[in-house]
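Entry type: protein chain
Record version: 2
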Amino acid sequence: MRRVRYGHTGGPLFLEEAPVPEPGPGELLVRCEAIGVTLPVVRKVTEAAEPVPLGGEIAGEIVASGAGVTGFRPGDRVTGLCFGHGYADFAVLQEVMASPVPDGASPVDAVALVRSGLVALGALSAARPAPGETALITGAASGVGHLAVQLARTRGASRVVGAVSDPAKADFVRGLGADEVVTCHRMGQNGRDSQGDRPTEGGRQGGFASVDYVLDAVGGALLTPALAALTPGGRLVAYSSGGGTVQAYDLLVGSTTVIGFQLRRIARERPELYERWRRELWRLFTEGAVRPVVHGEFALADAAGAHRVIESRTNLGKVVLIP
């Protein structure tokens, strides 16, 4: 089979021939039909101390299963997060991370909706939104962010503000249901402003308009103004790997809260909640309340091109590889 690899930190991606892996206990072997490209995986190529497998979201058909698998069988269509080599014709997926793909949904629909949607829905749930509250979504045009904008509406947000890195993304985010879109300087991969430590919103220096909760996908320099935007008692949910520092005094004066969210912990420790969120996503998709948007589909051999889109922050929605 073919898989994508790189030889050293920051090195170019290339295709290589590799044996088809065998599923171990509790694992599924999936013939990949769509692979989601995410910022954390892109960052690994440039930041990891040594080369690591390019994992990520996959969707496809099960061709074999390991010992102890009870919920799936060969021929089932699934999607989930692969922690090994995911940029490949075949990939191993842990059963606990797998979700069935319903009839009528394509592999691209699945890889664009489920994992990114679960992160968005989980971060939103962590914010404990009440009907009528207002929301700020950073990285609002990203694979996760564009779903978070829509999901905030389904949870009763009265006003949704989207933060983007480029004014060219504003119409896209408004089309998803955002009431207002603010533009920040394009952020570097480490979450810091490429033109300085302080981002600019809406063409001016200063903070965001007040909101009740923030779903932050960026971190870094954007964390401080996002936190300052919270109303008294507001909540900021951080689910990015962009870093950033929060001063305890800033939380004290506003009685605000910062919450860290990681989906992997939910999948492992609260599988019933993970499954409930998954069912909710597919229901909203079927009802037309949430629509995943795919920025582009790239051949496996052009994984580097897909990474360039993510690195440049020009994507509107999900970037997908098609083996």
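Comment: The chain is about 30% helix and 30% strand.
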